Structures are given as C-alpha cells and as structure tokens.
Amino acid sequence: AAMSRRKLQQLVDSLSRSAKHFNKSEVECLIKLFNTLVAESSNRFAAVGFDRNMFRDTLHRAFGMTDDVLMDRVFRTFDRDNDSCISVVEWVEGLSVFLRGTLEERIKYCFEVYDLNGDGYISREEMFQMLKNSLLKQPAEEDPDEGIKDLVDIALKKMDYDHDGKLSFMDFEKAVRDENLLLEAFGPCLPDIK
C-alpha cells in the first residue's frame, strides 16, 4: 500500500532534518526509490524494508561495490537498530553520509565499517582480512599473505600514532586528516565517483 500523501510529507520533513545533506525533493525521491525497490522484491520483509540481499544488490548496482565482506559491513552500519532490515529512515540517513557526508562523518562511517567486530579498534587481523579480500588475487609465485602482512605493517606504521599495534578511532581520524587518501585504506566502502 502506498503511504498517504500526508504521511509521506511528515516523513520528508523529519528526514530532511535528520539527513541534513539532502533537500526535501531529494529526500522524497529517495523515499520513492526505496518504496519502488521494496515493492519489486516480493519477499517477506517487503513491508518493512531492505534485507541484506536486496541491500547488497542495490550497493552493487548503484555504487559498483563488489566486496561481500565490506557490503555486509555497510549493511550493518546502515542498520542502526540491528534488526537485519534497513528501514526507509535508515536508508535515507545512511545515504546522507554515504553520498554527501562531511569528512568527519565519512571518517566515522569508514571506521565503523572497518571495525569488523565492533570493539572500537581496527586490529591487525581485521586489516589483514579486509586487504586480503579487496586486493586482486595475483597468480604469483610467492605467498600472497606475506605481501598483505607487509601492507598491514605499512598501514600501522603510518596510522598507529600511539603505537599500541591497532588503530583506535583517534589514530584513524588523525591519519585521514593528515592524508585524505587513507579514508578507504582497507577497501572500498564509499560509492565510486560516478
């Protein structure tokens, strides 16, 4: 069932306040897109929002993402209430940061994506896992894991300011502020320029 005009307006009003990088007409478009996508997928979640697979398809189709581990993390970052479903509010607020976020917001977002176990640090193991995942598999003679370990060491050398062998949010933030290119150091989790 389509939402009533009034309900849509209320939703647009509240979302253009909370998702502050979109104007009202953009918010309305995103709500309509959400409803269209949800309607297309006739699954049991359809009433409430995107499940993991739909969201993954959307990330893949709209933003060219291919890495399953990272797409799963993006899903969890959007899914604020952890109900395994992305509501229209989570969708619009998530996209606000994903597409237009300030550097500050994007740093927070990328850190959350990369902190695989949610303990507030990006550990050596997490870096290893993500880099192993996002680097192209080269048919090389030498053990690829060695090369990845080297990359992890380089990343830590460059970003681990307090030298505790893992990246806290402060480490990550400082590193990215010094060198913006490090924002997606451990794999693509923001949309490509297109």
From TrEMBL:
Record-linked InterPro entries: EF-hand-dom_pair (IPR011992), EF_Hand_1_Ca_BS (IPR018247), EF_hand_dom (IPR002048), Recoverin (IPR028846)
Pfam families recorded: EF-hand_7
One Gene Ontology molecular-function label: calcium ion binding
SUPFAM superfamilies linked: EF-hand (SSF47473)
The entry's keywords: Calcium, Metal-binding, Repeat
Chain ranges of the EF-hand domain: 66-101, 102-137, 147-182
The protein's name in its UniProt record: EFCB1 protein
Natural source organism: Pluvianellus socialis (Magellanic plover)
